[in-house]
Design a protein that fits this description.
The protein is mainly beta. Helix content is about 10%, strand content about 40%. The chain has one helix and ten strands. A four-stranded antiparallel β-sheet has the order 3-5-8-7, with no helix packed on it.
């Protein structure tokens, strides 16, 4: 296989996974520095110098992120369970505009029903689902996606993390 074929195969595999690769000149764990550069989590710029931490960024074109909270009930389950969950929101998030929901960590969505005030989600947690916190990716009508981090805690069977409040 030549280099061009190998590169095409790798890019094709990445595209099938839904990944977007782009080049950027700053790190992901950085904040904007008032001196006009990026400041890493240790308070250093790209050259290793201390950053200006006054942070008086007043870019009028930047809109503040909408203020909202998301809630998943129940927020925990054990491997091997299938249950009905309710996704609700408050603040500026319009729950009726949800078009799709997907969990990470091998947790599966079997069915969704979007209502004006909630999204009903039939969730299956197979025995092969990853233990720990699963994120929920929520797609909205305008094409945006929202990441609900640590939406569901997945535990081993019998660990006390059942979705059934009576167990």
């Amino acid at each position: 296989m030549n280099k061009v074929s190998l590169a095409a195969a790798v890019l094709g595999a990445i595209a099938l996974q839904g990944c977007i690769i782009y080049e950027d000149d700053h790190c992901f764990d950085c904040d904007w520095d008032d001196s006009g550069g990026w400041c890493d989590a240790d308070g250093r710029d790209q050259d290793g110098n201390a950053c200006d931490d006054t942070d008086t960024d007043t870019d009028e074109d930047t809109e503040p992120a909408p203020a909202f909270s998301l809630f998943l009930d129940p927020g925990q389950a054990e491997q091997g369970e299938t249950f009905l969950a309710h996704l609700t929101a408050d603040g500026e998030f319009v729950i009726g505009e949800v078009t799709d929901v997907r969990f990470t960590g091998g947790v599966e969505v079997l069915f969704t029903e979007v209502r004006e005030d909630q999204v009903l989600i039939l969730v299956d947690v197979p025995m092969t689902a990853e233990l720990g916190e699963a994120d929920l990716v929520i797609s909205r009508a305008e094409g945006q996606a929202v990441l609900f981090e640590s939406a569901l805690l997945v535990g081993e069977p019998g660990s006390g993390t059942s979705s059934d409040p009576c167990e």
